[in-house]
Amino acid sequence: MSENAPELASENTSENTSENASELVIDRVNDHVVHLIINRPQRHNALSAAVLSGLADYAERFNDDPDVRVFILSGAGTKAFVSGADIAELGNGIDGGRSTGHRRSMFPAAMPVI
């Protein structure tokens, strides 16, 4: 898991995980539910390298929390949940040219994802 994944301060707290701090927002709804919001409505919530990394980091982090039973994953805005990969980053590969050769699942959650 990434060292820059933030700690949750308390329930119902929004926080963010990317270099552009507003791209991924987390809301701990209650002890058993975590809501992750992809917050890039101007790009139809296209999946940037930072968002993909943040999603994977949070999934790995909460896999170790026995209280979390479900993730709710949503996209900000009214036009799209997620439009796919951010094609502006494809010239360097989806990871922005930072590939280590290690491939991991986009959202390796051990519990249901809604």
Q: How far apart are the first and last residues' alpha carbons, in Å?
A: 22 Å
Question: What's the rounded overall pLDDT mean?
Answer: 74
What about the largest sheet? 4 strands, mixed
Instruction: Give the C-alpha Rg.
Output: 14 Å
Low-confidence regions? 1-20
The order of strands across the largest sheet is 1-2-3-4
Report the helical percentage. 10-25%
Name the beta content range.
15-25%
Order of helices and strands: EEEHE
What is the number of E strands?
A: 4
Which descriptor suits the 3D outline? globular
Q: How many helical elements?
A: 1
Q: Which structural class do you get from the secondary structure elements?
A: alpha+beta
Provide a concise account of the structure shown.
This protein is of the alpha+beta class. 13% of the residues lie in helices and 19% in strands. A four-stranded mixed beta sheet has the order 1-2-3-4, with helices on one face.
